[in-house]
Amino acid sequence: MNGDLTIPTLLQGRIALVPTPYSAPLNAIAYEVIRVERGCPLFLQEHLGRLSQSLAVTGQRLPGDNGWLNGLLELFAYEPFTRNVRVDAVPNATGGVDLQAGFIASSYPTRAMYRQGVMCTLLHAERQNPQAKIWQANIRQAADALLEETAAYEAILVDRQDCITEGSRSNIIFLSRKTITTPPAEAVLPGITLSKVESAAKQIGLAWRRAPITLEELASFEACAITGTSPGVLPIARLGKVEYAILPELEELRKAYQALCTESMQAFRQLGKERNS
């Protein structure tokens, strides 16, 4: 950036233009990653609700004033294309939390990945509190090292009972005989994308169930996919040593989910018009 103050970052409730990309603070106690498309944050209310829930686990709450929210809305408006924003809750001097946010390096699957699927690997690791989106450096570091070693797209976590839980930065779904199976809610982060994919699945006539999925059961499913802020619904061609089909239902599901994203963008634009009227 040659030292130019060109990158917008939300600090202390105000937008600051800084010379370097946003870097997550080491002392963040909870965070969210929100996809922004043409200035519109997808599923903003749901993300802020989950951030509030994550803070509640730590005994904290969102700041009482709306300065941070106005700052977030201003930050989103800076992005004319598609990119992710990370929102961090950091401790302040009064014992509460302040929110800061910025655009982070974002990568999205290619069209070929959606057509052909991706390879994922298995990582034996458990989150301390899967219900809260709290940074766990040890799992992130282990996942990153494994992904670099295997050239896999994502690392899928396996708990001490040899059950699949979730991806290192995603959720996972399995498809067989028009039924989607995903791990129990208490074992995973309540994914925003996952909840929208559930709605999309029901719209296109797919059944939805939550149940434990052991390593031994992986080969019993016809197809699987990861869901998340960046990938949306991304088919998995191989998980560990198990290969899966890229079924048409997954593409239909992806399109139904994308329609919900479009609805979210339209609702945000309408809200903006009402705020400015």
From TrEMBL:
Top-level EC class as recorded in UniProt: transferase
One Pfam family cited in the UniProt record for this chain: Aminotran_4
E.C. number(s) listed in UniProt: 2.6.1.42
Gene Ontology BP term (one): carboxylic acid biosynthetic process
SUPFAM superfamilies in the cross-refs: D-aminoacid aminotransferase-like PLP-dependent enzymes
Pathway linked to the protein: Amino-acid biosynthesis; L-isoleucine biosynthesis; L-isoleucine from 2-oxobutanoate: step 4/4; Amino-acid biosynthesis; L-leucine biosynthesis; L-leucine from 3-methyl-2-oxobutanoate: step 4/4; Amino-acid biosynthesis; L-valine biosynthesis; L-valine from pyruvate: step 4/4
Catalytic activity reported: L-isoleucine + 2-oxoglutarate = (S)-3-methyl-2-oxopentanoate + L-glutamate; L-valine + 2-oxoglutarate = 3-methyl-2-oxobutanoate + L-glutamate; L-leucine + 2-oxoglutarate = 4-methyl-2-oxopentanoate + L-glutamate
Any GO MF annotation of the entry: branched-chain-amino-acid transaminase activity
Domain of life assignment: Bacteria
Family membership noted in the UniProt record: Belongs to the class-IV pyridoxal-phosphate-dependent aminotransferase family.
Protein name: branched-chain-amino-acid transaminase
